[in-house]
Amino acid sequence: MSIPFKKSPIEFKQRVLFPSNIFDILPDGHECYLYNDIFQQLDTSSMECKFSRTGQNAYHPRLIVSILIYAYSHGVFSSRQIEKRCNEDLSFMYIAGMNCPNFRVLSDFRKDSADFFNDCFKQSVRFAMELGLASLGHVSLDGSKFKANSSKHKAMSYQGLVAKEKELMKEIDLLIQKANRCDEEEDKEYKENNGYEIPEDLKFKEERLAKIKVAKKALEQREEQLNPGKEIEGKKQISFADKDSRIMGKNGNFDYQYNGQISVDEDNQIIVGQHLSQNANDKKEVDPAIDAMLEVTGVLPSKFSLDNGYMSGDNLEALEEAELDAYVATDKGEKKNKTPLNESNRQLTKADFTYNEQEDHFICPAGQILSLKSSAKSKRKRYQGSSQICSDCTYHDRCCKSTTGQARTINTDDKEPIRQQMNEKMERTESKEIYKKRKVIVEPVFGQIKNTGFRGFSVRGKTKTSGEFSLVCAVHNIKKIAKAIYNGVVRS
Fold it and tell me: Which region holds residue 29: left if phi is over 0, alpha if psi is between -120 and 50, else beta?
């Protein structure tokens, strides 16, 4: 006796008598309906004005950006895969209005719409604030690396570029000389030029030389912008594919990447400011982060928390000038050690030394003065004590690290006074309680973005990757808005 399994509905093999809407198959509460309602509120006028009234009608920019945002929110980043989903997945078909552009149209739009994507991000922030999802009460800043659309195997160092340029120029000169000699010999024998294989080789090397020169110039321009006036280190590298990206990473995992910076509001993890940096660390990222927030919201948050990667003189000065109530984690060597100084294994750190701002010197725990010994153009300062006093000090073995008997030194910069102020501020219990929230405000956001699948860019160049990063941040905000509406936290 056969088991009575369920049969396919009769509609599966038969046509219905009257036409029906294919999207009726989707559940009534499907998210695509809510997303579509949000997309209809996007102002695309800044992009529409770039299209011509003549020629073939173009796809509406709202349609394309809606498709891209919906695709990115579902972890689909390939333009070919997006087109495929728009032809096979009902929810994607609904967002596309069953009118999905070709994958090349999607790809070109993503490459050429950096300013528009940034505008979409700004709109997502303002929409969230209007719904009460962000109040700018406590905002946290953090950065994370995203892979550039390049390979570390298609790159060359500055010293390699210089050497290769000289080598190719020498080879080209030799080939030209050899070609000229061959031409002269053939002219004497045949009275005319016959074909010869050298010009083809010459053409290849000239094309290679042109690429080397372009990459070398791009590296020089990049380094001048990032480190004005400084001599370029020979080990500095540049990618032939994405010349704006830089080698970044840690723990031996290095690749061409960009440093994505986001400022996240405490209330619902809405990103209220973002920018893409070419710097491998965060020591100069506060100023652009403040500018990015002001550009979007027009105001700064009541509290601003940052991890110790931002503990630099430039960042602290930017926070002070903006009059922000900031909470920056203290560097390990500047944290107060609660262990008594007389403990035998207790190492002395910078935090054990008292800075005298008026006299501009440090005082060690034993009372010795470490006076200013040198001050560089980079505003770095070095303070040092007396070798004789240090050698006779009871703390010598736990304080002096020199193997040649040199006195204890302390290195800092001209921003030491504001650094000390932040150190003192972060010693307070209330400051620690405020800063403790940072790890649940901003850090999960990068996790959410990367868990969706976005770990690297699909476009190349600083301008285009900045646009895609704006798109990614707008997607995150719209997902948060949609979730809040869907859960009844707010009403659209």
Answer: alpha
